[in-house]
Design a protein that fits this description.
The protein is built from 1 helix and 28 strands. By secondary structure, the chain is mainly beta. The protein has 2 domains: 128 residues, 7 Propeller (Methylamine Dehydrogenase, Chain H); 126 residues, Methylamine Dehydrogenase, Chain H, CATH 2.130.10. The two termini are 35 Å apart.
Amino acid sequence: MDCYRLIPLFIVLGCFSSCKAQESGKQYLTLEKEIVLPNVKGRIDHIDINIKDQIAYIAALGNNTLEIVDMKSGKVTGSISGLDEPQGVAYITKHDELFVANGGTGECYFYNAKTFTKTGSIKFNDDADDVRYDADPDKIYVGYGTGGIGIIDGASHKLIGDIKLPAHPESFQLDAKAGKLWVNLPGSGIVGVCDLKTLKPTAKWSKLLPRANFPMAYDETQHHIIIGYRVPAKLIIYDSDTGKEIFNAPMVGDVDDLYWDAKNKCVYISGGGGAVDIFKQISDTSYKQVAHIKTRDGARTSLLVPELGILLIAARADGHQQAALLIYKTVK
């Protein structure tokens, strides 16, 4: 659950250089399509996709719905209602199911991805949030409550593990081969490191500033953890083994999602400050901002789909525009 909107002064100061910058780098990202979400009001949270069928699933938190969008036809083809602040969503490839985490109740639901009928549920204490699906072992990871990540078997829909944490988790990344999981704990200003075998925290990286570390990406090849902070708005890249800082730079404010594109050696960052910033790696320890692309105010959640060469951005409704899914083409 996002509780950092009460410190706008820090956000404005931290992102001044990036948010006020002129738009640049359009060759790296171009708007290809805008799909209106006509019945969606309020905040929008995470997105996932069925790549094969090009169906996007959008957690419309403020609307208490999951919106289903056919990207080929450019239309909303379905909506699952009766949710309570849906935050995390995952398309479960092996079973053609959807998994939705509700922040309001902590309830998580499974749905058949074709019929949208409910096929199962599992309950956490409260605030079920970010979700990761690891397809090979068929495991679903869910951050929840005042400090935990639940591990669910995709076939049985049963809880098979639980990692206890000192604060509510936001974005997290895992490396099954290395047996590690890294997690943002913005309430305590910590990046936690957990052992996937013992299901226990083993290390923590902490800072006084910056704080409010929400999004995270993982460069598995170079062993880099990539984190976006809101207070002030800053991108920091760490060595995933030691926690040593490798690189930092100011970026767009009110960040909620960021991604590492290994093919293009780029970091894509979407922020509620109304822009996408792109940083390109130019050496082992150096990255250069190559683009600042204006989107829409409050459009901070996104999903990079390298297989299709696109970046999806969820734009909430405001007084002048309807909510929409913005589809951007990335550089080849």
